[in-house]
């Protein structure tokens, strides 16, 4: 998978990971991949719902050492 941009949202609580993701994905073109790093467990539900409601695709979620990695393809 080719990552076009990485957003570090570690240590941020809801709703900041979503706010920063929205801003970061605006800079990408359709089809590009944004990797979002977050430590807020609520981000899993939040980003899943957000991608569905905005037409983006949540390609994959990984968790390693308490850090969630979300791979979002811009719609």
TrEMBL record:
Q: Name one Pfam family in it.
A: TusA
Q: Which family does it belong to?
A: Belongs to the sulfur carrier protein TusA family.
Residue stretches making up the UPF0033 domain = 7-31
Protein name per the record: Sulfurtransferase TusA family protein
Under the heading PROSITE patterns, the entry gives:
UPF0033
């Amino acid at each position: 998978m080719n990552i076009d941009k990485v957003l570090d949202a570690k240590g941020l609580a809801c709703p900041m990971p979503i706010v920063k993701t929205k801003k970061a994905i605006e800079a990408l073109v359709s089809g590009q991949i944004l990797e979002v790093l977050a430590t807020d467990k609520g981000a899993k539900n939040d980003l899943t719902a957000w991608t569905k409601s905005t037409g983006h695709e949540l390609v994959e979620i990984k968790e390693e050492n308490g850090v969630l990695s979300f791979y979002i393809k811009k719609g």
